[in-house]
Amino acid sequence: MADAASRLTRVAEQLLGVPLPVRIRAWDGSQAGPPATPVLVIRNRRALRRLLFKPGELGLARAWVAGDLDIEGDLYAALDAMAGLIWERGDDARSLVQAMRDPEVRAAARELLKLAGPPLPPAPPREEVRRRRHLHTRHSDKRAISHHYDVGNDFYEIVLGASMVYSCAYWGPAEEDATLVSAQRDKLELVCRKLGLTPGRRLLDVGCGWGSMAIHAAREHGVGVVGITLSQEQAAYARKRVADEGLTDRVEIRVQDYRDVVDGPFDAISSIGMAEHVGTERYLEYTSALYALLKPGGRLLNHQIARRPQRDEGAYEVDRFIDAYVFPDGELAPIGTTVTQLERAGFEVRDVESIREHYARTLRHWVANLETGWDRAVRLSSPGRARVWRLYMAACALAFERNRIGVNQVLAVRTPESGASGLPLRTRTWHG
C-alpha cells in the first residue's frame, strides 16, 4: 500500500473528472496534491469503504463523524474548495453510475476497491439517526427534538455562549462593534418591536428554547409570556432562568406541542427557528393553529431558514447529513412557499426581511466557541457528536455565505374584518 496518497489522488481525479482542490495525507503517511492547501487526512482504509457503500455526502459524513477523515488547516477553506465536488454536484450515486461507462473510470474504481480493503460495509456511527417513515406526529416530533436539543445544556452553553439563543443574531454594520451577546439581544429586541409588544399584552413563544426570548420580552416590554418547547432539558433550564430573573409571575414555560395549546387568544406570537421542524405536510396545520391562537389584530413573527426553490420541487430531498445527524425530520421550504401557507391560513403578510448574512456571521462565532471549548464539549457529549456540530455549523456558515440557503423574518397579522392592521405606515421604524 506504498504511497497511498498518490494512488488515491489519481483515482479521485479520474472518478470526479477534475483536479482535487485539497491535499491528501493517507494512513501510510504519504501525501499528494496541491501544496499550500488544506489537507484532507484519511486516517484508515475504512474511510474509503464508507464512501464506496454510501457515495457522496452521507459516506463522507459517516467517515468524518467516526474520525476516519479529518481536515488540517482552515476548515472553511477546505469545505469551500470541496463544495463543488459534494453539495453542488447533484445526485452523486447517479453521477457515478453514468461515469462508470468510461473504461478509465472503471479502472479507477477497481483501484479504489483494492485500496479500500475487505468489501464489508462499516456500521454507521452511533450518532446517526435513521429516518422514520411516519413524520411529524406528536411522538416523532418529540423524539426528533430530543435528539437535537437534549445533547445537554452545558454543551449548548459552550456553543451558544451566555445569551443561550439558538437562532441567528442581528449584527451591526461593523462586526468589531458587537459581541455575540449584544447581537443576540438586538435580534430579540427587533422581534419585540416588530410584534409591537407593550405592557400587559400576552405573548406565545413557540419553540421557546432556553427562555431567552420569553425573558427579554417580559423584562424589557412588560408582557406576559407562555413559552413552549418539546425538550425537557430546555424547559428545566428556561424555568430556572425565569426564576433567577424574578419573572415567574409573568413567564410560564411548558413542555407542550403547539397543536395542544388551547388557552388563547394571544396578542402576539413569536416563532424563532422552530418552523423548520414542522414539516411540509404539516405546515398549513401549523400556520392555521397559530392564526386561531391570535386575537384579531394580533401579530406573528415567523423567523425561519429557507432553501432555494428547485425547478422540480417533486425531486427535492432533504440534506442527508443534517437529516441523519443534526435535525432528524427537519425540512426547509422556499420563502415563497412559507408566505403562501401563511396567507392560506388567513394571515396578511406585511413584511419580509432577509437576514442571510447575519446567520453566516453567527455560525462562525458558534464554531469558534466550540473550538475554544473543544475538550470540554467532547467530555460532555462524545467525540462524534462534537465533530457533527463542528462540521454542521461550518458548512452551514458557508451555505449562507454562498446563498445556498437563507433566513427570513416574516411579520404577519390576523387582520380584523375592519381591515385595520394596527401597523405603522412606515413599518421599518422598528429598527429604531
From TrEMBL:
SMART domains xref list: PKS_MT
UniProt KW Methyltransferase keyword: yes
Alphabetical UniProt keywords: Lipid metabolism, Methyltransferase, S-adenosyl-L-methionine, Transferase
Segments forming domain Polyketide synthase-like methyltransferase: 155-416
Enzyme Commission no: 2.1.1.79
Catalytic residue list: 396
Entry GO MF terms: cyclopropane-fatty-acyl-phospholipid synthase activity
Protein name: Cyclopropane-fatty-acyl-phospholipid synthase
Organism whose genome encodes this protein: Streptomyces griseochromogenes
